[in-house]
Amino acid sequence: MKKSDDLFLLIKSLSKSEKRYFKLTSSRHTKGEKKNYLRLFEKIDKQERYDEAKLKKEFQNEKFTEHFFAIKSYLFDVILNSLIDFNREKQTDYKLYEDIIKINILISKGLNKSALKLAEKSAEKAKANSKYFMLEELLNIQSSKILLANIFLLKKKAGKIHYDKLKTLEELTSYIHYTILYEKFSIFFITTPLASSNEEIKKLDWLKNDPLFFDESNAKGYLAKENLYQIKRRYYWFIGDYEKSVYYRKKDLSLYDEYPLIKKSEPQKYFLAIHSYLMHAWFNISLSECEEYFTRLKTSAVSILQSAKNESVIRVVFAMFFIAEVLWLEKKGDQQKILSKLETLDEQLKKFNTTLETPKLLDIYSATGAALFRMGDYGNALPLTNNVLNHKESNKLGTLFHINLVRAIVIHFELGNYDIIEYLIKKLSRINIKDRRILSSEKNLIKTINGLIKTTSKKECLYLLEDFKIMLEKLSVSMLEKIFITRLGLMKWVERNIAKIKKEM
Hints:
Blueprint lengths: L3 H10 L2 H12 L8 H11 L5 H7 L9 H20 L4 H17 L3 H17 L3 H15 L4 H41 L6 H5 L2 H4 L2 H4 L7 H18 L2 H17 L1 H6 L1 H15 L5 H21 L3 H22 L2 H9 L1 H7 L6 H17 L3 H12 L9 H16 L3 H18 L4 H15 L3 H18 L3 H10 L1 H15 L1
Protein backbone atom coordinates (compact mmCIF):
# COMPACT_ATOMS: atom_id res chain seq x y z
CA MET A 1 0.00 0.00 0.00
CA LYS A 2 1.47 3.34 -1.05
CA LYS A 3 0.92 5.68 1.89
CA SER A 4 3.58 8.38 1.37
CA ASP A 5 1.81 10.68 -1.08
CA ASP A 6 -1.63 9.79 0.26
CA LEU A 7 -0.56 10.56 3.83
CA PHE A 8 0.91 13.93 2.83
CA LEU A 9 -2.21 14.85 0.82
CA LEU A 10 -4.50 13.74 3.64
CA ILE A 11 -2.65 15.88 6.18
CA LYS A 12 -2.65 18.88 3.83
CA SER A 13 -6.40 18.50 3.25
CA LEU A 14 -7.22 18.88 6.96
CA SER A 15 -8.79 22.10 8.19
CA LYS A 16 -7.42 23.90 11.27
CA SER A 17 -10.26 22.51 13.36
CA GLU A 18 -9.61 18.95 12.16
CA LYS A 19 -5.88 19.28 12.91
CA ARG A 20 -6.60 20.71 16.35
CA TYR A 21 -9.03 17.86 17.09
CA PHE A 22 -6.53 15.24 15.92
CA LYS A 23 -3.70 16.64 18.07
CA LEU A 24 -5.99 16.96 21.09
CA THR A 25 -7.32 13.39 20.91
CA SER A 26 -3.88 11.95 20.05
CA SER A 27 -2.11 13.58 22.97
CA ARG A 28 -4.94 13.14 25.50
CA HIS A 29 -3.58 9.90 26.93
CA THR A 30 0.12 10.64 26.34
CA LYS A 31 2.40 11.37 29.25
CA GLY A 32 5.90 12.75 28.84
CA GLU A 33 7.23 12.73 25.28
CA LYS A 34 4.93 12.97 22.29
CA LYS A 35 3.90 9.84 20.45
CA ASN A 36 6.11 9.13 17.45
CA TYR A 37 3.24 9.27 14.97
CA LEU A 38 2.19 12.69 16.32
CA ARG A 39 5.73 14.01 15.88
CA LEU A 40 5.77 12.63 12.33
CA PHE A 41 2.42 14.33 11.69
CA GLU A 42 3.80 17.72 12.74
CA LYS A 43 6.91 17.36 10.55
CA ILE A 44 4.91 16.36 7.46
CA ASP A 45 2.43 19.18 8.10
CA LYS A 46 5.30 21.71 7.87
CA GLN A 47 6.51 20.41 4.50
CA GLU A 48 5.47 22.17 1.28
CA ARG A 49 6.31 19.03 -0.73
CA TYR A 50 6.59 15.53 0.60
CA ASP A 51 10.25 14.72 1.24
CA GLU A 52 10.74 11.32 2.89
CA ALA A 53 14.54 11.49 2.79
CA LYS A 54 14.45 14.72 4.80
CA LEU A 55 12.05 13.15 7.33
CA LYS A 56 14.30 10.13 7.84
CA LYS A 57 17.29 12.44 8.32
CA GLU A 58 15.44 14.45 10.98
CA PHE A 59 14.52 11.25 12.84
CA GLN A 60 17.77 9.39 12.09
CA ASN A 61 18.57 8.71 15.76
CA GLU A 62 15.05 7.43 16.50
CA LYS A 63 14.43 3.72 16.76
CA PHE A 64 10.99 3.95 15.09
CA THR A 65 12.60 4.81 11.72
CA GLU A 66 13.37 1.10 11.38
CA HIS A 67 9.62 0.65 10.88
CA PHE A 68 8.97 3.90 9.00
CA PHE A 69 6.45 2.39 6.58
CA ALA A 70 4.46 0.86 9.43
CA ILE A 71 4.24 4.10 11.41
CA LYS A 72 3.15 6.02 8.30
CA SER A 73 0.39 3.48 7.69
CA TYR A 74 -0.62 3.71 11.34
CA LEU A 75 -0.69 7.53 11.20
CA PHE A 76 -2.88 7.40 8.08
CA ASP A 77 -5.43 5.18 9.86
CA VAL A 78 -5.36 7.23 13.08
CA ILE A 79 -6.12 10.42 11.11
CA LEU A 80 -9.05 8.71 9.35
CA ASN A 81 -10.43 7.49 12.69
CA SER A 82 -10.05 11.01 14.08
CA LEU A 83 -12.04 12.41 11.13
CA ILE A 84 -14.79 9.85 11.74
CA ASP A 85 -15.04 10.97 15.38
CA PHE A 86 -14.85 14.65 14.38
CA ASN A 87 -17.80 14.26 11.98
CA ARG A 88 -19.75 11.72 14.00
CA GLU A 89 -22.37 14.07 15.44
CA LYS A 90 -23.42 15.59 12.12
CA GLN A 91 -23.59 12.39 10.05
CA THR A 92 -26.82 10.38 10.16
CA ASP A 93 -25.00 7.32 8.79
CA TYR A 94 -22.61 7.20 11.75
CA LYS A 95 -25.46 7.46 14.24
CA LEU A 96 -27.43 4.68 12.55
CA TYR A 97 -24.40 2.36 12.40
CA GLU A 98 -23.82 2.97 16.10
CA ASP A 99 -27.48 2.26 16.81
CA ILE A 100 -27.24 -1.09 14.99
CA ILE A 101 -24.19 -2.02 17.09
CA LYS A 102 -26.00 -0.98 20.29
CA ILE A 103 -29.11 -2.99 19.31
CA ASN A 104 -27.04 -6.14 18.72
CA ILE A 105 -25.31 -5.68 22.08
CA LEU A 106 -28.69 -5.34 23.82
CA ILE A 107 -29.95 -8.52 22.09
CA SER A 108 -26.81 -10.43 23.16
CA LYS A 109 -27.51 -9.35 26.75
CA GLY A 110 -31.10 -10.58 26.54
CA LEU A 111 -32.56 -7.07 26.68
CA ASN A 112 -34.92 -7.57 23.75
CA LYS A 113 -37.47 -4.99 24.88
CA SER A 114 -34.87 -2.20 24.95
CA ALA A 115 -33.38 -3.48 21.66
CA LEU A 116 -36.81 -3.38 19.95
CA LYS A 117 -37.50 0.15 21.20
CA LEU A 118 -34.17 1.42 19.83
CA ALA A 119 -34.57 -0.55 16.57
CA GLU A 120 -38.01 0.98 15.90
CA LYS A 121 -36.78 4.48 16.67
CA SER A 122 -33.70 4.04 14.44
CA ALA A 123 -35.79 2.54 11.62
CA GLU A 124 -38.01 5.66 11.57
CA LYS A 125 -34.88 7.82 11.41
CA ALA A 126 -33.44 5.72 8.56
CA LYS A 127 -36.76 5.86 6.67
CA ALA A 128 -37.05 9.65 7.01
CA ASN A 129 -33.48 10.09 5.72
CA SER A 130 -33.79 7.53 2.86
CA LYS A 131 -31.02 5.32 4.29
CA TYR A 132 -32.32 2.19 2.59
CA PHE A 133 -29.54 -0.28 3.36
CA MET A 134 -29.56 0.51 7.07
CA LEU A 135 -33.36 0.57 7.15
CA GLU A 136 -33.43 -2.94 5.66
CA GLU A 137 -30.93 -4.11 8.31
CA LEU A 138 -32.97 -2.54 11.13
CA LEU A 139 -36.21 -4.11 9.89
CA ASN A 140 -34.53 -7.54 9.62
CA ILE A 141 -33.19 -7.18 13.15
CA GLN A 142 -36.72 -6.47 14.41
CA SER A 143 -38.38 -9.42 12.66
CA SER A 144 -35.61 -12.04 12.66
CA LYS A 145 -33.63 -11.41 15.83
CA ILE A 146 -36.07 -9.87 18.28
CA LEU A 147 -39.68 -10.67 17.43
CA LEU A 148 -39.15 -14.35 16.52
CA ALA A 149 -38.47 -14.90 20.21
CA ASN A 150 -41.98 -13.56 20.94
CA ILE A 151 -44.40 -14.94 18.34
CA PHE A 152 -47.39 -13.01 19.72
CA LEU A 153 -45.58 -9.69 19.45
CA LEU A 154 -44.37 -10.66 15.95
CA LYS A 155 -47.96 -11.32 14.87
CA LYS A 156 -48.95 -7.87 16.15
CA LYS A 157 -46.16 -5.98 14.40
CA ALA A 158 -45.57 -8.17 11.31
CA GLY A 159 -47.93 -6.23 9.03
CA LYS A 160 -46.13 -2.90 9.43
CA ILE A 161 -42.66 -4.46 9.25
CA HIS A 162 -43.49 -6.41 6.06
CA TYR A 163 -45.02 -3.27 4.47
CA ASP A 164 -41.90 -1.25 5.37
CA LYS A 165 -39.65 -3.99 3.96
CA LEU A 166 -41.48 -4.03 0.61
CA LYS A 167 -41.59 -0.21 0.50
CA THR A 168 -37.85 -0.09 1.22
CA LEU A 169 -37.17 -2.65 -1.54
CA GLU A 170 -39.29 -0.62 -3.99
CA GLU A 171 -37.50 2.65 -3.22
CA LEU A 172 -34.07 1.01 -3.20
CA THR A 173 -34.74 -0.64 -6.59
CA SER A 174 -35.95 2.67 -8.00
CA TYR A 175 -32.87 4.43 -6.64
CA ILE A 176 -30.55 1.87 -8.28
CA HIS A 177 -32.31 2.25 -11.66
CA TYR A 178 -32.03 6.04 -11.53
CA THR A 179 -28.41 5.87 -10.36
CA ILE A 180 -27.53 3.81 -13.44
CA LEU A 181 -29.44 6.25 -15.67
CA TYR A 182 -27.68 9.20 -14.04
CA GLU A 183 -24.25 7.62 -14.53
CA LYS A 184 -24.94 6.81 -18.22
CA PHE A 185 -26.11 10.37 -18.85
CA SER A 186 -23.18 11.87 -16.91
CA ILE A 187 -20.66 10.04 -19.10
CA PHE A 188 -22.27 11.66 -22.14
CA PHE A 189 -22.75 15.08 -20.49
CA ILE A 190 -19.12 15.42 -19.36
CA THR A 191 -17.82 15.00 -22.92
CA THR A 192 -20.58 17.14 -24.51
CA PRO A 193 -21.91 19.66 -21.90
CA LEU A 194 -23.95 21.69 -24.40
CA ALA A 195 -25.51 20.70 -27.74
CA SER A 196 -24.23 22.69 -30.70
CA SER A 197 -26.47 20.98 -33.29
CA ASN A 198 -29.66 18.93 -33.71
CA GLU A 199 -27.46 15.91 -34.46
CA GLU A 200 -25.99 16.11 -30.94
CA ILE A 201 -29.48 16.44 -29.41
CA LYS A 202 -30.57 13.30 -31.31
CA LYS A 203 -27.75 11.38 -29.62
CA LEU A 204 -29.84 11.60 -26.45
CA ASP A 205 -32.99 10.06 -27.95
CA TRP A 206 -32.27 6.95 -25.87
CA LEU A 207 -32.71 9.08 -22.73
CA LYS A 208 -35.76 11.03 -23.93
CA ASN A 209 -37.55 7.76 -24.79
CA ASP A 210 -36.69 5.99 -21.53
CA PRO A 211 -39.79 5.58 -19.25
CA LEU A 212 -37.58 6.38 -16.26
CA PHE A 213 -37.01 9.83 -17.82
CA PHE A 214 -40.41 10.82 -19.20
CA ASP A 215 -42.62 9.20 -16.54
CA GLU A 216 -41.73 10.83 -13.22
CA SER A 217 -44.05 8.50 -11.29
CA ASN A 218 -41.36 5.82 -11.70
CA ALA A 219 -39.12 7.69 -9.25
CA LYS A 220 -39.90 6.28 -5.80
CA GLY A 221 -38.40 7.96 -2.77
CA TYR A 222 -36.07 10.89 -2.20
CA LEU A 223 -32.88 9.52 -3.76
CA ALA A 224 -34.56 8.37 -7.00
CA LYS A 225 -36.33 11.72 -7.38
CA GLU A 226 -33.12 13.61 -6.67
CA ASN A 227 -31.32 11.70 -9.44
CA LEU A 228 -34.23 12.23 -11.87
CA TYR A 229 -34.39 16.01 -11.29
CA GLN A 230 -30.64 16.35 -11.70
CA ILE A 231 -30.77 14.40 -14.97
CA LYS A 232 -33.65 16.55 -16.23
CA ARG A 233 -32.13 19.91 -15.36
CA ARG A 234 -28.88 18.92 -17.05
CA TYR A 235 -30.70 17.47 -20.07
CA TYR A 236 -32.73 20.66 -20.62
CA TRP A 237 -29.57 22.71 -20.16
CA PHE A 238 -27.92 20.52 -22.79
CA ILE A 239 -30.65 21.08 -25.39
CA GLY A 240 -30.82 24.82 -24.63
CA ASP A 241 -34.13 24.98 -22.73
CA TYR A 242 -33.00 27.28 -19.90
CA GLU A 243 -36.48 27.75 -18.35
CA LYS A 244 -37.08 24.00 -17.95
CA SER A 245 -33.58 23.55 -16.55
CA VAL A 246 -34.38 26.16 -13.88
CA TYR A 247 -37.78 24.51 -13.27
CA TYR A 248 -36.08 21.23 -12.33
CA ARG A 249 -33.65 23.02 -10.05
CA LYS A 250 -36.74 24.27 -8.22
CA LYS A 251 -38.22 20.74 -8.13
CA ASP A 252 -34.93 19.48 -6.69
CA LEU A 253 -35.20 22.14 -3.99
CA SER A 254 -38.85 21.19 -3.26
CA LEU A 255 -37.66 17.72 -2.17
CA TYR A 256 -36.38 19.24 1.07
CA ASP A 257 -39.93 20.35 1.92
CA GLU A 258 -41.18 16.86 1.09
CA TYR A 259 -38.44 15.24 3.21
CA PRO A 260 -37.78 17.74 6.06
CA LEU A 261 -35.46 15.46 8.04
CA ILE A 262 -33.03 15.40 5.12
CA LYS A 263 -33.01 19.20 5.18
CA LYS A 264 -32.09 18.98 8.88
CA SER A 265 -29.47 16.22 8.54
CA GLU A 266 -27.78 17.65 5.40
CA PRO A 267 -27.83 21.46 5.86
CA GLN A 268 -24.98 22.14 3.41
CA LYS A 269 -26.71 20.18 0.66
CA TYR A 270 -29.93 22.14 1.31
CA PHE A 271 -28.00 25.43 1.17
CA LEU A 272 -26.46 24.46 -2.19
CA ALA A 273 -29.89 23.52 -3.59
CA ILE A 274 -31.37 26.96 -2.69
CA HIS A 275 -28.27 28.72 -4.02
CA SER A 276 -28.34 26.75 -7.28
CA TYR A 277 -31.96 27.67 -7.91
CA LEU A 278 -31.49 31.35 -7.05
CA MET A 279 -28.36 31.80 -9.17
CA HIS A 280 -30.14 30.45 -12.24
CA ALA A 281 -33.59 31.98 -11.65
CA TRP A 282 -32.53 35.37 -10.26
CA PHE A 283 -33.16 37.53 -13.32
CA ASN A 284 -36.49 35.88 -14.22
CA ILE A 285 -38.38 35.69 -10.92
CA SER A 286 -40.42 38.36 -9.15
CA LEU A 287 -39.06 40.43 -6.27
CA SER A 288 -41.39 38.67 -3.80
CA GLU A 289 -40.28 35.16 -4.89
CA CYS A 290 -36.68 36.30 -4.85
CA GLU A 291 -37.14 37.58 -1.28
CA GLU A 292 -38.73 34.29 -0.20
CA TYR A 293 -35.84 32.15 -1.41
CA PHE A 294 -33.18 34.63 -0.34
CA THR A 295 -34.63 34.55 3.20
CA ARG A 296 -34.42 30.76 3.15
CA LEU A 297 -30.83 30.96 1.90
CA LYS A 298 -29.91 33.46 4.62
CA THR A 299 -31.40 31.31 7.40
CA SER A 300 -29.53 28.28 6.06
CA ALA A 301 -26.22 30.17 5.67
CA VAL A 302 -26.35 31.68 9.18
CA SER A 303 -27.04 28.26 10.70
CA ILE A 304 -24.10 26.66 8.88
CA LEU A 305 -21.68 29.54 9.59
CA GLN A 306 -22.52 29.47 13.30
CA SER A 307 -22.14 25.71 13.68
CA ALA A 308 -19.52 24.64 11.09
CA LYS A 309 -16.16 23.48 12.39
CA ASN A 310 -14.51 23.09 9.00
CA GLU A 311 -12.84 26.28 7.68
CA SER A 312 -13.27 25.27 4.04
CA VAL A 313 -17.04 24.92 4.57
CA ILE A 314 -17.15 28.36 6.24
CA ARG A 315 -15.22 29.95 3.35
CA VAL A 316 -17.39 28.41 0.64
CA VAL A 317 -20.71 29.21 2.34
CA PHE A 318 -19.58 32.75 3.23
CA ALA A 319 -18.49 33.56 -0.34
CA MET A 320 -21.60 32.02 -1.93
CA PHE A 321 -23.93 33.85 0.44
CA PHE A 322 -22.05 37.15 0.01
CA ILE A 323 -22.57 36.97 -3.77
CA ALA A 324 -26.24 36.02 -3.33
CA GLU A 325 -26.78 39.00 -1.03
CA VAL A 326 -25.14 41.34 -3.56
CA LEU A 327 -27.57 40.09 -6.21
CA TRP A 328 -30.50 40.50 -3.81
CA LEU A 329 -29.46 44.11 -3.09
CA GLU A 330 -29.16 44.69 -6.85
CA LYS A 331 -32.67 43.29 -7.32
CA LYS A 332 -33.89 45.79 -4.71
CA GLY A 333 -31.86 48.60 -6.29
CA ASP A 334 -29.85 49.25 -3.10
CA GLN A 335 -26.53 50.31 -4.63
CA GLN A 336 -25.26 52.01 -1.47
CA LYS A 337 -25.68 48.89 0.63
CA ILE A 338 -23.67 46.86 -1.91
CA LEU A 339 -20.77 49.31 -1.57
CA SER A 340 -21.10 49.28 2.21
CA LYS A 341 -21.08 45.48 2.27
CA LEU A 342 -17.92 45.40 0.18
CA GLU A 343 -16.16 47.94 2.43
CA THR A 344 -16.83 45.78 5.50
CA LEU A 345 -15.81 42.46 3.88
CA ASP A 346 -12.75 42.00 6.14
CA GLU A 347 -14.80 42.74 9.27
CA GLN A 348 -17.41 40.18 8.24
CA LEU A 349 -14.69 37.56 7.73
CA LYS A 350 -13.21 38.28 11.18
CA LYS A 351 -16.54 37.33 12.78
CA PHE A 352 -15.97 33.78 11.57
CA ASN A 353 -12.22 33.85 12.22
CA THR A 354 -11.39 33.04 8.60
CA THR A 355 -10.00 34.46 5.38
CA LEU A 356 -10.98 33.86 1.77
CA GLU A 357 -8.84 31.98 -0.71
CA THR A 358 -8.04 33.89 -3.93
CA PRO A 359 -10.58 32.13 -6.21
CA LYS A 360 -13.45 32.93 -3.82
CA LEU A 361 -12.30 36.53 -3.42
CA LEU A 362 -12.13 36.98 -7.19
CA ASP A 363 -15.64 35.52 -7.50
CA ILE A 364 -16.85 38.18 -5.05
CA TYR A 365 -15.06 40.99 -6.92
CA SER A 366 -16.47 39.80 -10.24
CA ALA A 367 -20.06 39.37 -9.00
CA THR A 368 -20.07 42.72 -7.18
CA GLY A 369 -18.50 44.49 -10.16
CA ALA A 370 -21.14 42.93 -12.43
CA ALA A 371 -24.00 44.06 -10.16
CA LEU A 372 -22.70 47.64 -10.00
CA PHE A 373 -22.22 47.66 -13.79
CA ARG A 374 -25.79 46.52 -14.37
CA MET A 375 -26.92 49.33 -12.05
CA GLY A 376 -24.94 51.87 -14.10
CA ASP A 377 -22.24 52.56 -11.47
CA TYR A 378 -19.28 52.28 -13.83
CA GLY A 379 -16.82 54.11 -11.58
CA ASN A 380 -17.13 51.60 -8.74
CA ALA A 381 -17.46 48.63 -11.08
CA LEU A 382 -14.08 49.32 -12.75
CA PRO A 383 -11.67 48.68 -9.81
CA LEU A 384 -13.48 45.45 -8.96
CA THR A 385 -13.28 44.33 -12.60
CA ASN A 386 -9.57 45.26 -12.68
CA ASN A 387 -8.95 43.20 -9.53
CA VAL A 388 -9.86 40.14 -11.58
CA LEU A 389 -8.10 41.17 -14.81
CA ASN A 390 -4.85 42.21 -13.09
CA HIS A 391 -4.50 39.17 -10.86
CA LYS A 392 -1.17 37.38 -11.29
CA GLU A 393 -2.91 34.14 -12.32
CA SER A 394 -5.56 35.82 -14.48
CA ASN A 395 -4.63 33.64 -17.48
CA LYS A 396 -5.98 30.62 -15.56
CA LEU A 397 -9.38 32.14 -14.76
CA GLY A 398 -11.09 31.13 -18.03
CA THR A 399 -14.70 32.29 -18.29
CA LEU A 400 -14.34 34.58 -15.26
CA PHE A 401 -11.52 36.50 -16.97
CA HIS A 402 -13.41 36.58 -20.27
CA ILE A 403 -16.61 38.12 -18.86
CA ASN A 404 -14.64 40.70 -16.87
CA LEU A 405 -12.64 41.65 -19.97
CA VAL A 406 -15.82 42.27 -21.98
CA ARG A 407 -17.25 44.28 -19.08
CA ALA A 408 -14.03 46.34 -18.86
CA ILE A 409 -14.36 47.32 -22.53
CA VAL A 410 -17.87 48.68 -21.95
CA ILE A 411 -16.87 50.44 -18.72
CA HIS A 412 -13.90 52.17 -20.35
CA PHE A 413 -16.21 53.28 -23.18
CA GLU A 414 -18.63 54.78 -20.64
CA LEU A 415 -15.79 56.53 -18.79
CA GLY A 416 -14.34 57.88 -22.03
CA ASN A 417 -11.09 55.92 -21.76
CA TYR A 418 -10.97 55.23 -25.51
CA ASP A 419 -7.18 54.77 -25.67
CA ILE A 420 -7.26 51.50 -23.74
CA ILE A 421 -10.29 50.03 -25.56
CA GLU A 422 -8.36 49.08 -28.71
CA TYR A 423 -5.80 47.17 -26.61
CA LEU A 424 -8.57 45.34 -24.66
CA ILE A 425 -10.44 44.41 -27.86
CA LYS A 426 -7.27 42.91 -29.37
CA LYS A 427 -6.69 40.95 -26.17
CA LEU A 428 -10.29 39.67 -26.27
CA SER A 429 -9.89 38.65 -29.91
CA ARG A 430 -6.74 36.62 -29.10
CA ILE A 431 -8.53 34.83 -26.25
CA ASN A 432 -11.56 34.03 -28.41
CA ILE A 433 -9.35 32.60 -31.17
CA LYS A 434 -7.44 30.51 -28.64
CA ASP A 435 -10.59 29.22 -26.88
CA ARG A 436 -12.63 28.98 -30.11
CA ARG A 437 -15.28 31.07 -28.41
CA ILE A 438 -17.75 32.81 -30.75
CA LEU A 439 -20.72 34.70 -29.34
CA SER A 440 -22.67 36.87 -31.77
CA SER A 441 -23.82 39.21 -28.98
CA GLU A 442 -20.21 39.86 -28.02
CA LYS A 443 -19.14 40.39 -31.63
CA ASN A 444 -22.00 42.86 -32.19
CA LEU A 445 -21.22 44.64 -28.91
CA ILE A 446 -17.64 45.35 -30.06
CA LYS A 447 -18.92 46.49 -33.46
CA THR A 448 -21.43 48.84 -31.79
CA ILE A 449 -18.83 50.32 -29.41
CA ASN A 450 -16.41 50.94 -32.28
CA GLY A 451 -19.23 52.66 -34.19
CA LEU A 452 -20.17 54.82 -31.19
CA ILE A 453 -16.55 55.92 -30.72
CA LYS A 454 -16.21 56.97 -34.36
CA THR A 455 -19.41 59.05 -34.62
CA THR A 456 -20.27 62.39 -33.01
CA SER A 457 -23.87 62.38 -34.26
CA LYS A 458 -26.46 61.67 -31.58
CA LYS A 459 -28.83 60.46 -34.28
CA GLU A 460 -26.23 57.96 -35.53
CA CYS A 461 -25.55 56.84 -31.96
CA LEU A 462 -29.26 56.26 -31.41
CA TYR A 463 -29.49 54.26 -34.64
CA LEU A 464 -26.51 52.07 -33.64
CA LEU A 465 -27.92 51.38 -30.16
CA GLU A 466 -31.46 50.64 -31.35
CA ASP A 467 -30.07 48.33 -34.03
CA PHE A 468 -27.97 46.57 -31.37
CA LYS A 469 -31.03 46.20 -29.10
CA ILE A 470 -33.01 44.50 -31.89
CA MET A 471 -30.03 42.20 -32.48
CA LEU A 472 -29.88 41.27 -28.77
CA GLU A 473 -33.59 40.42 -28.73
CA LYS A 474 -33.14 38.10 -31.73
CA LEU A 475 -30.06 36.44 -30.27
CA SER A 476 -31.77 35.77 -26.92
CA VAL A 477 -33.47 32.68 -28.40
CA SER A 478 -30.09 30.96 -27.98
CA MET A 479 -29.54 29.89 -24.35
CA LEU A 480 -25.81 30.69 -24.38
CA GLU A 481 -26.39 34.10 -25.91
CA LYS A 482 -29.22 34.84 -23.47
CA ILE A 483 -27.09 33.93 -20.44
CA PHE A 484 -24.24 36.14 -21.69
CA ILE A 485 -26.58 39.06 -22.48
CA THR A 486 -28.42 38.80 -19.13
CA ARG A 487 -25.46 38.30 -16.82
CA LEU A 488 -23.40 41.00 -18.45
CA GLY A 489 -26.42 43.31 -18.37
CA LEU A 490 -26.21 44.30 -22.05
CA MET A 491 -29.92 45.01 -22.48
CA LYS A 492 -29.92 47.31 -19.45
CA TRP A 493 -26.83 49.08 -20.76
CA VAL A 494 -28.39 49.61 -24.22
CA GLU A 495 -31.73 50.83 -22.83
CA ARG A 496 -29.98 53.20 -20.42
CA ASN A 497 -28.00 54.76 -23.25
CA ILE A 498 -31.00 54.99 -25.60
CA ALA A 499 -32.98 56.82 -22.89
CA LYS A 500 -30.06 59.13 -22.22
CA ILE A 501 -29.62 60.10 -25.91
CA LYS A 502 -33.38 60.63 -26.41
CA LYS A 503 -33.38 62.95 -23.41
CA GLU A 504 -30.48 64.96 -24.83
CA MET A 505 -31.94 65.23 -28.37
